[in-house]
Predict the structure.
Amino acid sequence: MASFKPKKEHRFSFGLWCTANRGRDPFGEETRSRLDPLTNIKELGKRNVYGFNFHDDDLIPFGANLQLRNKIIKGTKQIMRDYNIVCSMATTNLFYHRVFKDGAFTSHDPRVRAFALQKVMKNMDLGAELGAKTYVFWGGREGTEVDASKTPGEAIKRYRECMNYLCSYARHQGYNYRFAIEPKPNEPRGDIFLATTGHVLAFIETLDYPEMVGVNPEIEHSRMAGLNTYHDFGQAMEAGKLYHVDLGAQKPNRFDQDLRFGSEDIKETFFVVKLLEDNNWAGTRNFDEHPYRNEDEKGVWDFVEGSMKTYLILWDKVRQFNADKKIQQILKDIHGTDPALEHLMGRYTPEGASKLRAQSFDPMALSKKRLPYEELDQRLQELLMGVA
Ligand code: GLT
Ligand code: MN
Ligand code: MN
C-alpha cells in the first residue's frame, strides 16, 4: 500500500491564515494562541509543503514601520531557504480593517479606493521580492446588505478601474504576476459582487489586459452557492483561466465552513483532483481551509497532514479510475462516433448546412443507445469506498 507521504514535488501549498487561524467566529473568541508567521512557514516547510501564501497583514502587522518590515522580510527569506519552501501566492487583506467596512475597490469614497490600491501595490512589491508568481484578489467586502446604497453597475465599473490600474502597475514594474480573482457569493457581506466563477469569467473579458487575469475558484465558495465545484473548475480550465485553486470542503448552502479537504463532498472532490491531475495542472495544489475550532496546536498540524494525505489518496483513486477496465469500457461505449457527421458539424458552411438539413435521422433508434450510468457510478462508488 502506498504511503501517501507528501513530497515537495507534489506542490502543496497553504495560506498562512489557514494554519494561523485561531478559531474565532462571530459567536466566540479565539480557542488557539497566536502562531508567529515565521514559525508557521517553518512548520509548513518541515512537513514537505512546497509553498505558502500570505496576505500583507499575515506577515507584516498592519501599520508596521520600515524597520520591523525589513526585519520580517529578512527572517522570511532565511526560513524559506532553510526549509526549502517558496512563496507561491500573495494577496492583500482588503477586508479586516474598518476602513473597508463598505468595500475597498467598490467603496463610494475615492480615498478608500486609493488607499486600497496603495495597499495592493505595496504588497505586490513584497510578493515579487519573495518570488510569488500569482496574485489573488478576493473582494470579501465588495458587496452590500442594502441594495439602495450601491448599484451593481457602479460597483463593477470601480472594480474594473482598480483591476486595470493594478494590471498596469504590474506591467510597469516588470512583475510577471498572473492575477486570479476569487469569487464568493456572500459572507462577510450580505451579497458579494463577482459571486461565482461565471461572473468572474465574464468580468475578465471586459478588462484592459484580460490575458493577465484568471479565476481562483474555491471548493467551499462554489458549494456555498449550491454549485458543482467540478463544473466551476472545469469551465475555468477550459477557458484557459484557471490561474489558482483553493481547496477545502463545505456542506452546501451554508456559511463558509472552510472544512478540511475531502472531509465532505468526497465524489465531487475526487473529480476536482482528477481534473487537475489528468490535465497536469501546473499550479500549486493549494489548500484554503481552517482547522476545527476545537483543535489545539497539534490539531493544526494534523489538519495540514490530513489535507495532503487525502489529496494523495484521491490522486491514487484517479489512477485506479483511469486504469479500471470496466469503467474505461463504459466510457468508450457511451461516446458515439460518426466522422462524416462530425465533419459536417465541425465548421459551418452553407453547403454543409444544406446537407445537414437533408440528412434523415431515426430519433427513436438513437434514443435506444444504452447509457449504463448506474453501473458506471456504482463502480466509482465502490472504488472510492475501497472495495473495487
Ligand atoms: C479569506 C477568504 C478566502 C480567501 C482568502 C484570500 S482570505 O479567508 O475566506 O477564501 O481566499 O484573501
Ligand atoms: Mn473561503
Ligand atoms: Mn479562498
The radius of gyration is 23 Å. The chain is about 50% helix and 10% strand. Residues 317 and 368 are 32 Å apart (CA to CA).
